[in-house]
Write a structure and sequence with these properties.
- The relative contact order is 0.16.
- The strands form four sheets. Strands 8, 11, 12, 13, 14 and 15 form a six-stranded antiparallel β-sheet that branches.
- The chain has two domains: 2-101, 2-Layer Sandwich (Phosphorylase Kinase, domain 1), CATH 3.30.200; 104-250, D-amino Acid Aminotransferase, Chain A, domain 1.
- 31% of the residues lie in helices and 26% in strands.
- The protein has helices spanning 2-6, 51-65, 90-93, 118-127, 166-171, 175-197, 249-256, 271-289, and strands spanning 13-16, 20-24, 28-33, 38-39, 42-43, 74-76, 97-101, 104-115, 129-130, 133-134, 144-150, 153-154, 201-213, 216-220, 229-233.
- By secondary structure, it is an alpha+beta fold.
- The protein is globular.
- The longest helix is centred in the middle third of the chain and has 23 residues, at 175-197.
Length: 293
């Protein structure tokens, strides 16, 4: 289907990311979220059924509900409002795509961590730092930070993203822009954290991406999905443990126990791992949006 849509006259350029297929139209982009899954920056051969629709639904939900906090690139996810040339593909696009504003991408992943876990916990155990920042207090795994941390990384299409310090982040762009992005990332995280806490979900960490149209900065890509966030069940949350999660940490944990060297090619996934990953994604979608596929 990707190659067919690429051939349309309305499509000026197209590319496939790890999970998303992106089509450049006149002054907009069509973003189609596939069922592909990646871990450790490697794409797996086995899709997770309905994953694309789940991620798309969650992003649309948050793009709509947080537009008053920070403007974003979302235009519509209603296929009937897409250009006429795309209508023959309506069945394929429905539920897994959105039409968005075309921006100049700011090439950084804006990671906000409210709790110490994952790569941050690994770094802290080795060096007492997180994102290059010295952490004075003594912490346990999954412990909540007094204030959420902003730990950016470079954004690359192929290979591994590189964590950088906030000081380096500041040095790579206009300082006012860097401060704005940091402040908005923290504001959205705090909003989502407080909102989902009431529904029994802890947002441990998440990442955002931004783009620019002229002088306007917009939130882009995806938003608070289980691909870009770490969600924990509040009822299972306990400091010093790795709580039950509703994201692809389940897949990462499985892979860490297989002995895979985290280099391409990715191994095939067992059917039960695929099914359990889908169940976790479905569960967080229902909690966030109140809807099911």
């Amino acid at each position: 289907m990707h190659s067919e849509i690429c051939k349309l006259k309305i499509v000026k350029a197209c590319r496939q990311g790890k999970v998303r297929d992106i089509y450049s139209l006149e002054d907009t982009l069509l973003i189609v979220t596939s069922d592909r899954i990646s871990a450790f920056d490697v794409v797996f051969p086995d899709p997770i059924p309905d994953k694309g629709k789940i991620l798309n639904a969650i992003s649309v939900h948050f793009f709509k509900s947080t537009a008053s906090i920070v403007p974003n690139h979302f235009i519509t996810d209603k296929v009937e409002e897409y250009p006429a040339e795309l209508q023959p593909y309506a069945e394929y696009l429905a539920g897994r795509s959105m039409l968005v504003k075309k921006t100049r991408v700011i090439p950084f992943e804006c990671i906000v961590r409210g709790y110490i876990s994952g790569s941050a916990w690994s770094e802290y155990r080795k060096t007492n730092t997180i994102g290059g920042m010295l952490i004075a207090e003594e912490m346990q795994e999954s412990q909540k930070f007094i204030n959420p941390l902003f730990t950016p990384s470079t954004k690359v299409e192929d290979g591994h993203d590189e964590n950088i310090s906030y000081r380096e982040f500041l040095s790579r762009m206009d300082e006012k822009l860097a401060v704005y992005i940091k402040d908005k990332s923290l504001e959205i995280y705090n909003h989502a954290h407080d909102l989902l806490m009431k529904q029994g979900i802890v947002v441990a960490d998440t990442k955002f991406e931004f783009g620019a149209i002229g002088n306007q900065i917009l939130l882009i890509d995806e938003m608070l999905t289980p691909d870009s966030s770490r969600f924990w069940a509040l009822e299972d949350y306990q400091i010093g443990t790795s709580p039950k999660s509703y994201d692809k940490q389940f897949l990462r944990d499985y892979l860490n126990n297989t002995g895979w060297d985290k280099q391409p090619p990715a191994p095939a996934l067992p059917e039960d791992v695929i099914a359990k990953t889908r169940d976790k994604y479905m569960a967080i979608m229902k909690i966030i949006t109140g809807k099911e596929i």
